[in-house]
Amino acid sequence: MKEKKQGGLNAEIQSRIGHQLRAMYDDVVRQGVPDRFAELIRKLDVPEANPQLGNAGDKNNGGE
Question: What is the number of structural domains in the chain?
Fold first, then answer.
């Protein structure tokens, strides 16, 4: 009885794909983050005062 050959990529093809993916990824990493994205990230990192959540949340939780 003949064994079924499982589909898939041989080691050489897997290695080539891996090298190509690494090269593409390295190129993307070298490009860095665009200034407009970096600015948005900085804005998200700084907590903003939210007037809707101010002390009103405390009153609702205080049972008054």
Answer: 1
